[in-house]
Design a protein that fits this description.
The complex is a heterodimer of chains A (99) and B (311). Chain A is of the alpha+beta class. Chain A is 43% helix and 19% strand. Chain B starts with 12 loop residues before the first helix and ends with a helix. Classes of the chains: A alpha+beta (99), B alpha/beta (311).
């Protein structure tokens, strides 16, 4: 597998904070979990109604999803297994590498 | 094989460099390759200059356009587009009157990979690496090459933490890649009239300012060009792009190349955020390279013709 399969189980999750409190909590959570922020590029740009896309490892994404459910925050899982999408980005290259 | 270069696939740094050498050798009437410096890890910073030499009865100088891709390593669609642009320019020079006019009247500098160290690292180690690969005193690597320009350096939207993805760097132009491009553009600033930098993902055409909400002095002109460009994109496959100043359309940030270029006298300065809006994000499948590049070509040609007609 590409990248030694390190992204297996990683997720990309979209959250749009509905108010300032949610935005602050989200910033805190992202910092704690040390997620990879896809958008916006900086945690300091997270405000109410700003689309946030985060890439989180297998373990971190479980913790993040648990937190979001408990906080009643809406979220969407954009990518449920990042490794699979990486392999699909350039399928011919992935095949050549495996061969 | 170089002869069957696949423009609908993503390529490693080595493949892109071989391709640039090939284009330079095989299309010397339209393409001239040169290096403007070296990256932190010692890689050449290659630029392709496109355009015909002015004939003797025309002006001895031509206006110029600068395009760069790959400032952020993980945004692979950028370098893919830069390559597509060069291919299209060469292939359609004789058949497309618009492209012929562009290449006869202008020079276009295309830098397919502004951040070669980071790009290579995103292929070999970390697919989602964003920054350069410089290392100073601290434990973490890299600087955000789009926060390192000498314009409101390290203010809003940039971080002083070397481990952050938006780390501005120890000082402006600390990154040799940024310094090399800045020096080149500054030297050619009397001739360069359009600056375009390509990023992903958000589907937007953006212009200054990033660091403040005030309008630029030639707002009407630039806004009109951006509006026509998004209409051109939409005309291809119906994809909607938004447009506007970076600060109010995306978010506040400082030290970005689009603001630096504008403040250095380049009147049309744009940042393109290419496909998509999050379904694939940075992992846009190779099957979507073609439509993304086709629509983006229309926008770039549109902006260029806007310049030639004058606002």
């Amino acid at each position: 597998h590409l990248y030694n399969n390190r992204y297996d189980g990683d997720k990309v999750i979209r959250v749009v904070p509905k108010n300032d409190d949610e935005a602050d909590e989200l910033k805190h959570m992202y910092q704690q979990l040390q997620v990879d922020l896809w958008q916006p590029s900086s945690i300091s740009n997270i405000w109410k109604d700003i689309i946030t896309d985060v890439h989180a490892s297998n373990m971190s994404s479980e913790a993040l999803l648990t937190y979001l459910r408990q906080a009643n925050m809406e979220y969407k899982i954009l990518v449920s297994n990042l490794q699979q999408v990486i392999e699909k980005q350039s399928p011919s290259r992935a095949k050549r590498k495996r061969r | 094989s170089i002869l069957k270069y696949d423009y609908e696939d993503y390529h490693t740094l080595e493949e892109i460099e071989k391709w640039m050498h090939h284009m330079n050798r095989s299309h010397s009437n339209l393409v001239h390759m040169f290096s403007i410096g070296t990256s932190y890890e010692g890689r050449p910073l290659y630029v392709l200059k496109l355009g015909t030499k002015p004939s003797s009865f025309r002006k001895s100088y031509k206006r110029e356009i600068w395009m760069d891709c790959g400032i952020h390593a993980r945004e692979w669609i950028g370098p893919a587009f830069c390559q597509w642009f060069v291919k299209e320019a060469i292939n359609t020079y004789k058949s497309d009157p618009v492209m012929k006019k562009i290449l006869d009247f202008l020079y276009i500098y295309v830098m397919p990979v502004l951040n070669p160290d980071g790009y290579r690292y995103s292929w070999t180690h970390d697919r989602f690496w964003r920054k350069t690969r410089s290392k100073m005193r601290y434990n973490c690597y890299g600087v955000d090459a789009n926060r390192n320009w000498k314009v409101k350096f390290c203010e809003e939207g940039a971080s002083l933490n070397p481990c952050d993805n938006t780390y501005c760097g120890p000082y402006a132009e600390s990154e040799p890649e940024v310094k090399a491009v800045a020096q080149f553009i500054h030297k050619r600033r009397k001739f360069i009239k359009i600056y375009i930098t390509f990023h992903a993902y958000a589907q937007m055409i953006l212009y200054p300012y990033s660091y403040q909400y005030d309008d630029i002095p030639n707002f009407k002109c630039v806004e009109s060009a951006a509006q026509k460009a998004v209409q051109a994109i939409n005309s291809a496959f119906g994809v909607r792009y938004r447009h506007g100043p970076v600060a109010s359309t995306l978010y506040l940030s400082s030290g970005s190349s689009v603001d630096w270029a504008y403040n250095n006298g380049i009147p049309y300065s744009f940042a393109f955020e290419l496909r998509d809006t999050g379904y694939y994000g940075f992992l846009l499948p190779d099957g979507l390279i073609r439509p993304t590049c086709i629509e983006t070509m229309l926008a770039v040609k549109n902006i260029t013709m806007h310049l030639l007609k004058k606002c």
